[in-house]
Structure formats: C-alpha cells, structure tokens
Design goal:
Helix content is about 40%, strand content about 0%. The chain has helices at about 1-10, 25-35.
Length: about 50
Amino acid sequence: MVAMLFACRVVEERSRFNQIPRLLKQQVADIIVNDFGMPELVPSEFGGSAE
C-alpha cells in the first residue's frame, strides 16, 4: 500500500525516485516498471532505464 503511494507520487512527478525510503525502493520500482509501464522513471540499478 505504501509502495503504491510512493509509485503514484513518482509517476505524477510529485516526488523523485531518490526521495523514496531505501527499504521501499525495489517495491516502488517494480510497481512503476511492471504496473505503470514507465521504466524511464526508475534507475537502471532497480530495473528501469533512467540514468
């Protein structure tokens, strides 16, 4: 639930990925890439395509 909240905030550009708490980053990355289909918002170390 909290990971989905952070994922929505990143997609809506209300937060940046680097502002997400460390323990939630992988879960949020998975949601953004797999559910929202926006890998460009996630750094490559978490499975995305952002630099």
